[in-house]
Amino acid sequence: MQRRSVWFDGVIIAVISVLACIMLMPYVWMVLSSLKSNMEIVAGSGGFFPQHPSLDGYRTVLKDTPFMKWLLNSAFTSVVITAVTLFTSALSGYIFAKHQFRGKKLLFILILATMMIPFQVIMIPTYLITAKLGLINHLFAIILPNLVSSYGVFLAKQFIEEIPQDLLDAARIDGAGELKLMLRIIAPLILPMLSALGIFTFMNSWNNYLWPLIVLNDTSKMTVPLALVYFNGTHMVNYNVVMSAAVLITTPVIIVFLIFQKQFIKGLTMTGMK
Predict the structure, then answer these.
(1) Which among 6, 38, 40, 116 would be 20 to 30 A from 186, CA to CA?
(2) What is the pTM of this model?
(3) Cα distances (Å, whole numbers) of residue 221 to 27, 67, 107, 227
(4) Measured CA distances, 247 to 20, 24, 142, 151, 253 (Å)
């Protein structure tokens, strides 16, 4: 039985390793292609690895375009959206989990219902509202529609419901107000969930392409996903430049995940789902 268990574990590890290689292959190919010349990519010569590695693609991206400006635009919008979403999700989840008020169940059902509506359905009304507010070609046109996440509210509610009510009552007896209750007790206990939600929100905001494409047409206000379109020429595409830009765009997301990976995994395994 022990030999069978070792053999089975070895097969599982081998299968997972193969799947991991398949998943990583596009990113590895992208990095290696960014080190090739455009002619080498177009001609398909040299195979998988670059024959003459070069950083010309990165130099073009960083020197000949306002890429750093686009990077700051994406960083600003993603950080603001993530911070506000975590705040609104935690606060709303706490209210729905630990407070009773009239219409609570109906309101929560309506919030959950918005999760079933594709963004494309509400895209035109959202654009008209954004235009009425005078936010077209402004970074707040990206931020404003994404300040509240119905999924975040749902996740926070499920997690906070697992916090013993006796713990909160004891804190109130000791004189803790609602603000201190949130900051000193609830926030530390739901930190893994907030970390997981924060990474999801940051990644979605960083990679958002469709909505910025609609509301932004000023080159100085572009975010990094739109930069890939900027590098596409009318008659020819500089593939090494596009691959270099793609590497620079995906690197911050990978860094954020590596920093918060422990909290992210812990948050996924402790969601408090019933």
Answers:
(1) 116
(2) 0.82
(3) 27, 11, 36, 11
(4) 19, 13, 23, 29, 11
Q: How many CA atoms lie within 13 A of 37 on its CB side?
A: 7
> DSSP letters along 157-188, please?
HHHHTTS-HHHHHHHHHTT--HHHHIIIIIHH
Q: At what angle do helices 191-207 and 150-160 cross, to 10 degrees?
A: 170
Spatial contact of 137 and 220, defined as CB atoms under 8 Å apart: no
Q: Residue 71 belongs to what H/E stretch?
A: helix 67-98
What is the distance between the alpha carbons of residues 24 and 20, in angstroms, rounded to a whole number?
6
Retrieve residue 253's tokens. 């997301």
Question: What are 109's two structure tokens?
Answer: 């059902």
Which of 24-33, 76-85, 141-150 tops mean pLDDT? 76-85
Please say if the pLDDT value at position 234 is more than 60: no
d(CA 206, CA 15): 31
Residue with tokens 């292959």: 25
In whole angstroms, what is the distance from residue 135 CA to residue 29 CA? 39
Q: What is the chain's length? A: 274
